[in-house]
Design brief:
alpha+beta, Rossmann fold, 3 domains, six-stranded antiparallel sheet, 16 strands, 18% strand, GlcNAc_PI_deacetylase-related, membrane, hydrolase activity, acting on carbon-nitrogen (but not peptide) bonds, in linear amides
């Protein structure tokens, strides 16, 4: 996390503590003047208000501008929003990925309800109190836009009279040989089920077993190590079996069997093995029994960075992908995700086979735990980017309603995404539904059913052909 984000996090916690102290002092003073039952009532009301409107983890200001730099020469033009219709000032440039840059300003109601912009049959939500530059994803609506029929309306926010339309042209990467890198079982489905389920030639490589945080399995009478071992086996099975739902055969799925949250440590000491934090295991070979490809780490089973990079190099040369789908190392802060892409880049450098393109995804964010904001099935606006990112092109393919349902069912098969939410989260959602108008999908209780099942998937495109 950057120094700026650390400062904002500290300020957020400090302000929360100061507000709590001031509120408690006010309640204590009022307690001398009011009936005894008023004090607990005020405390309950304050807690309900917090859960409804102040429980989001937002580590930037809602009036911060998003900062995106696109590659030099990216086609863009001014557009008009007057009359509630998006109008072009010139002929629409060729390209399937359309990003609309706007200055949004919240209304008073947008401080209590999530402000959103309706774009044709889509909606894209933003932070309460939004005031600044934002980037809407209107990919898939080029036909209506070109005909002057694309209606745009702000709800709980005010739209400007003018905006900027960015147009990016890409090949259909699903028609090329694709390798999806998943740090954990479920990352491939969360980020790229729509892509891989229609790819002609695709391989899926899962780097870790996903064995940690196995407390739920302790209910089966297992020790901590046994529960972790069982969870690792189940999630390893998920990584091989669930892609079948998207048409990917088992012989094109590979489980490497390394251990959760150990990849960053492995990168720091490449020759040192790092076993599981919870199961006590330190041999990756048991998780590889169903693999159809022989790999370097099969020789000694050591969970080392050197073995990981060698495994990925071998897989590059075996499957010969033209496109590698991998986490975005600047946007996605999860340590295993950052390390996974680092390993991919090292493997490409060492490999005799060279992919030409990285498609990068973000399943987690530093700044905002609700992105993509808004309900399931809506579009994916660009995520918060308060600090400058590399100037990458974007590709945002559409998912039909049928593919969205298949993606939701794939997530429902994941052992780590099953089960009901804990009581506190269910209560918070009920409060937010009643007071803040939020909605959650019926397909699953895990937050990823809302965040990942959308009309778009979103990838940052980076050329690695040199």
């Amino acid at each position: 996390m950057s120094a700026r984000k650390q400062r904002l996090l500290k300020a957020h916690r400090r302000n929360k503590r100061l507000f709590l102290v001031a509120f408690l002092l006010a309640v204590a003073v009022l307690g001398f003047w009011l009936a005894w039952w008023v004090v607990p009532l005020l405390l309950v009301l304050a807690w309900v208000a917090h859960e409804a409107w102040f429980a989001d983890h937002l580590f930037y200001r809602a009036n911060d501008d998003y900062t995106y730099d696109f590659p030099a020469g990216t086609a863009h033009q001014s557009v008009s929003l007057e009359g509630g219709v998006l109008r072009l000032d010139e002929t629409l440039t060729e390209g399937e990925t359309l990003i609309l840059e706007l200055e949004l300003k919240t209304t008073w109601l947008g401080r209590w309800l999530d402000p959103f912009v309706e774009v044709g049959d889509d909606r894209q939500d933003f932070e309460r109190g939004v005031k600044g530059r934002r980037f809407l994803n209107i990919s898939g609506q080029g036909s209506a836009l070109g005909q002057g029929l694309l209606v745009v309306r702000g709800r709980c926010c005010i739209l400007p009279a003018k905006g900027t339309l960015w147009v990016m042209a890409n090949p259909d990467y699903a028609r090329r040989r694709v390798m999806v890198i998943a740090p954990h079982a479920d990352d491939a489905e969360l980020a790229a089920f729509g892509l891989y389920s229609r790819s002609d030639e695709v391989s899926i490589v899962t780097l870790t077993q996903g064995e940690i945080e196995a407390e739920d399995y302790r209910h089966l009478g297992l020790s901590k190590a046994e529960a972790a071992r069982l969870k690792g086996r189940l999630r390893s099975w998920d990584s091989l079996a669930i892609p079948l739902w998207g048409g990917v055969p088992v012989n094109r799925c590979v489980q490497l069997g390394y251990y959760c949250l150990q990849l960053p440590l492995m990168a720091q000491e490449p020759a040192k093995p790092f076993g599981s934090r919870e199961s006590g295991d330190s041999d990756v070979r048991p998780a590889r029994r169903q693999n159809s490809v022989s790999l370097p780490a099969d020789a000694d089973g050591a969970p080392t960075w050197q073995n990981l990079v060698a495994d990925l190099k071998t897989l590059m040369e075996h499957f010969r992908p033209e496109v590698v789908v991998t986490p975005h190392p600047e946007l996605d802060p999860h340590g295993d995700h950052v390390a996974s892409t680092r390993a991919v880049i090292e493997a490409i450098a060492a490999s005799a086979w060279k992919p030409t393109t990285l498609l990068m995804y973000a399943n987690h964010l530093h700044d905002n735990d609700r992105w993509p904001m808004g309900p399931a099935g809506a579009g994916i606006a660009l995520p918060p980017a308060i600090e400058s990112l590399p100037a990458d092109k974007l590709w945002s393919p559409l998912l039909s309603s049928e593919v969205q349902l298949d993606k939701a069912m794939a997530l429902a098969m994941e052992h780590d995404l099953r089960g009901p939410a804990v009581f506190k989260r269910r209560l918070r959602r009920w409060i937010q539904q009643v007071l803040a108008g939020r909605r959650w999908p019926v397909t699953g209780s895990n937050e990823f059913f809302r965040k990942s099942v959308r009309r778009h998937e979103l990838f940052w495109v980076r050329d690695v052909s040199d």
